[in-house]
Amino acid sequence: MTMVKDFSSFLQCLMEAGEKIEPHYFQIPIAGSGELKYRERVYCYELFHQLRIALGDDFPYKLDGEVDKEGHPIIHPTLGPKKPDLIVHKAGKMNRNLVVIEVKPINLNNQGLKKDINTLKGFLGKARYYRAIILIYGDRESRSNIIQTAKNLIGDKSRILLMWHRRSGMKPVIVH
Fold it and tell me: What's the pTM?
């Protein structure tokens, strides 16, 4: 398989995995308050679980979560101690880095969004990832301006995909 086909196959698995994430993993009920909170780690761990199942054992890359790049001889000197949420790669082979993913809730602030998009751009460059994805999850219409902000920060002709996973039972969609 070429990286183009591998990435296309990965995207299909990502959409399938996202569709299986239950409401609890989008927002956690806070005891005693009746309030629901976005918790990125909870969503990410469930996404990892569902994605690992969707990819299966025959996918030619490995899915890893929060791999610490501190001390990496190629990545760390220029990008610093980064820990992308998810990476799909062949460990130890810089020419086989398929995709790096940052996951964020819809209520993130613009500064956090900018930091993560810059991190993805760094991984596309120095770490030679084929593609990158910023995946925003949640459905707050009042905050959907974060989607437009992300589009503006990514720009045109980028190798960064912007995906939005609005709610449980829906597939994440590519919005830019």
Answer: 0.91
The pair of three-digit structure tokens given for residue 71, joined into one six-digit string = 């001390």
**Which ranges constitute the DSSP H helices of the chain?**
3-19, 23-26, 40-55, 76-79, 110-125, 145-154
DSSP code at position 30: P
Residue 135, beta-bridge partner list: 103, 163
Q: Of 28, 37, 19, 7, give the one whose Cα is nearest residue 166.
A: 19
d(CA 53, CA 162): 23
Residue 115 sits in which domain range? 3-174
pLDDT interval class at 20 (50, 70, 90): very high
Q: Find out whether 88 and 10 touch, Cβ atoms under 8 Å.
A: yes
Render pLDDT for 100-139 as a digit per residue (tens, 0 to 9). Answer: 999 999 999 899 999 999 889 988 988 889 999 999 999 8
Domains in the chain, number: 1
Q: What distance in Å separates the CA atoms of residue 164 and residue 146, rounded to the nearest whole number?
A: 11
